[in-house]
Amino acid sequence: MIPRIPHDEVTLPDGGSMPRLGMGTWYLGEGRRPPEDEIAALRTGLDAGVRLIDTAEMYADGGAERLIGRAIAGYDRASLFLVSKVYPHNAGRARLRRSLEASLRRMGVDYLDMYLLHWRGSIPLAETVECMEAAVDAGLIRQWGVSNLDMTDMRELMRVANGSHCCVDQVLYHLGSRGIEVDLLPWLRKRRILVMAYCPLAQAGRLRDGLLDSAVVREVAAAHGFTPMQVLLAFVLHRPDVVAIPRSGNPRHVLENVAVLSDPLTDDEYAALDRAFPAPDHPVPLDME
Ligand SMILES: NC(=O)c1ccc[n+]([C@@H]2O[C@H](COP(=O)([O-])OP(=O)(O)OC[C@H]3O[C@@H](n4cnc5c(N)ncnc54)[C@H](OP(=O)(O)O)[C@@H]3O)[C@@H](O)[C@H]2O)c1
Questions:
Q1: With bands split at pLDDT 50, 70 and 90, how would you rate the model's confidence at 1?
Q2: How far is it, in rounded angstroms, from Cα 97 to Cα 89?
Q3: Is 256 part of a structural domain of the chain?
């Protein structure tokens, strides 16, 4: 059993809920660290109450899903919230079911809590939605969503049959990349579709110069006994309807990330970060990694 973290859930469009903090797995299972260390990091998160793990068939070419399978062995499946993603070229009648079943096999489970279209490809959205709905009906997934879809894509998705059943749009969002706040985020909120923020730590600060050594970030960090990285996560989690999925193969970092949930930023701290790294004042193309 996995303990509950207080205030850790967010409501889904169908009235169900999902955890606000998860663990990403891009670059895990690639041999950058011994697999035992990465498994230990994931288990540290699970033992600390993080129930959500985000992955994709793409990550380490299935290796991240296999690693997750090893990490979750022995945990109560019902207490977990597993999310994977299908490659765009597999997201149609010919291959979605096969991709999904392969993901399930690699993780050693018989359903996913959520399955996402990884990014938009050439298969029509209507066909992907039809396949996602069929997978729900077959009991292989509980919910489905999308990733890297911008406003235009989302509007189109809402026009296809059952497109409004989409639960989340997983997009890049961090203190140094706030374009979604201008249009996509409020548009999704109106429809109660959740944002899953990927790269919430700006890939350890690599995606934007000046984040980690910013005086404001450092001041806020000092006030909480946080590292600058924890401030980046706290910024994303300040919005109650955004899910964040930081990735770490280091148990100490995982625990630091968990600690952020129980020590939120004050509104003044949020305002100071907002001034230091403002959102754009006009729509910008969706940032992607
Ligand atoms: N849908 C998509 O297209 C898409 C694209 C990108 C990512 N994603 C998902 O989002 C997840 C997160 O994004 P990401 O992995 O690209 O980047 P990220 O989570 O922003 O940053 C990961 C980096 O931060 C470090 N880190 C984590 N916690 C830390 C802490 N407390 N202190 C210091 N360093 C820390 C990690 O190193 P250590 O391992 O050393 O801790 C790693 O280098 C991915 O793993 C993936 O699941 C989805």
A1: low
A2: 12
A3: yes
**DSSP one-letter code for 167:** -
Joined tokens for residue 18: 């999902």
Rounded CA-CA distance 67/80 in Å is 15
The reply to whether 118 sits in an annotated binding site is: yes
Residues whose CB is less than 8 angstroms from the CB of residue 227 and which lie 6 or more positions away in sequence, other chains included: 221, 256
Tokens of 269: 């701290």
| Chain segment 36-70, per-residue pLDDT in tens | 999 999 999 999 999 999 999 999 999 999 999 99
Around Cβ 158, how many Cβ atoms within 10 Å?
Answer: 14
CA of 114 to the centre of ligand 1 (A): 20
**186 close to 195: Cβ distance less than 8 angstroms:** no
Asked, for residue 1, whether it belongs to a domain, the answer is: no
Does the annotation mark 59 as catalytic?
A: yes
**Is 194 within a domain?**
yes
